[in-house]
Write a structure and sequence with these properties.
about 40% helix, alpha/beta, TIM Barrel, about 250 residues, 9 strands, five-stranded parallel sheet
């Protein structure tokens, strides 16, 4: 029986694909790096399967679950653990991203910044800049910014001034063209807590004032915005309605 890749969608007759020409990270005798390399190979096999599905679906993005206009599945920047040196972790992650982007043909590969826990490869925009440079600035690599993750990593998204400073940093790092997707989530924990814990829009530490400023920013107006808050369908509908109200949208 063929092994099914873990996902929210199950298909029949599709096993994992092993690309015939994939770059490999340099071998190492360190246990932490051996584990990272094994994860790298497993990740590449899984993503090659996803990308084949995207190509056959006719979509340019992968979003699951999501609206009918396309699919997106952001690639989390990940965590290296305590045993892997940060520069080496970035090298392994960059090699993986470059290989996946090369397999992607015309599909965008989104990298989602993390909340900044121990061993995080990329939780800030400068981190992403380094990762992107290490991946050869591949044109199909794009940026996904999660509001809860950014807040947890220390960005002051709870104030208009903090929102401006956040997006000014994106502009200074010449990443404006890479930012195409926003995950809208409030945070259960205070700014800088490095805890990835989503809550309902306006009910966390970012608050309505923060989201009003985020949604009004020109950079965000150019992005797709997806709500990832917890709860039932009626909770999702309420959060989406809150986002529309705060953005001034009547759609």
């Amino acid at each position: 029986m063929r092994r099914q890749p873990r996902s929210g969608v199950r298909t029949r007759g599709h096993g994992c694909i092993r690309p015939s020409r994939r770059p490999r990270p340099a071998s190492s005798d360190r246990p932490g790096e051996r584990k990272a390399s094994a994860r790298w190979c497993s990740t590449l096999r899984t993503w090659s399967t996803w990308l084949r599905r995207i190509r056959t679906s006719g979509h340019a993005r992968w979003i699951w679950p999501g609206p009918p206009w396309g699919w997106q599945r952001p690639f989390h920047a990940g965590s290296a653990g305590a045993s892997t040196e940060p520069g080496r972790a970035r090298e392994i992650a960059a090699a993986s991203l470059a290989a996946i982007a090369e397999l992607a043909d015309e599909t965008s590969v989104f990298v989602e910044l993390t909340a900044g826990g121990a061993g995080s490869v990329a939780s800030t925009f400068p981190d992403f800049r380094k990762l992107l440079d290490a991946a050869g600035r591949h044109p199909r690599l794009a940026l996904c910014a999660d509001t809860c993750h950014l807040f947890a990593a220390g960005y002051a998204l709870d104030t208009p001034a903090g929102v401006r400073a956040c997006f000014d940093q994106i502009r200074r790092l010449r990443l404006s063209g890479r930012l195409r997707l926003i995950h809208a989530n409030d945070s259960k924990f205070p700014r800088g807590a490095r805890r990835d814990s989503h809550t309902h829009i306006g009910e966390g530490h970012i608050g309505e004032a923060g989201f009003r400023a985020i949604l009004a920013h020109p950079a965000v107006r150019q992005c797709a915005v997806i709500c990832e808050t917890p709860g039932r369908l009626e909770d999702h509908a309420r959060n989406i309605a809150t986002l529309r109200r705060l953005s001034g949208s009547t759609a």
